[in-house]
Amino acid sequence: MGADDNQSRGPLALICCGGSLPFAVADAVATSGRQVVLFAVDGIVDAARVANYAHRWVKLGQGGHLMSMMREAGCHDVVFIGSLTRPPLSKIRLDLSMLMMLPTIISSFRGGDNHLLKNLGSILEKNGFRLVGAHDVAPQITVPNGNLTKLAPSPVELADIKRGLGVLTAMGPFDVGQAVVVTNGHVIAIEGIEGTDEILSRVADLRRRGRLHAPAGRGVLVKAPKPEQDRRFDLPAIGPKTVEGVAAAGLAGIAVAAGETIMAEPAATVTAADRAGIFVTGIEALAR
Asked: What pTM was estimated for this model as a whole?
């Protein structure tokens, strides 16, 4: 998609949650010549960083207000991006437009994250917006195929990566998580609701308590989208903090689905991995 195509589509709406990914996507899209407007979730997004971009603030539950603001800004294409801990429905103050869709919203909360996001996304689509994936508008921020660091996975680690991909594929229909840690063929941690940083912290704790017997420098964090996941939402992501967690957990490296994993701060991530003596590699996910 060239700059003229981007401009003819009008501004891109980024519905932004936490972390650095929204800003990485915004910067990447802006370099292609397309205007970006951030619709930042109040209380979740870093206000100081948002101030550097064209933006509007929105509260959770204000779907009607959000759609009105996106129309006023001339946005048709929409990207969801950033981290968000799912709040209980009882804590969300829905505006009138959302209250009128309450049965749909209640149904959306009865399932995993992919189920929730797809249903909320369908509300936007029914109101005339087009949902696109971050990797579609900013493909340069996805992890390419192949090794990115000075170190590469050994044959033992390649076997662990294959095992990890198999586990993620098997879990896919249950809409559970996008990450697993495998050491010497042993699955030692599976991502659930807590997220990748927490499972790495758990692995580090297992090592401290003597529950993990593999020596430091063995084992792999494997990340890939769920096989049936809508790629417009919640793609797996890594960044410098992931590298820190992997190093603290005593693992050998990180393997992620190439072209389907976002890497925040690519240069900093690779530099941190080289400094820590771990590998980062993009791999082909198993067939869906």
From this structure: 0.81
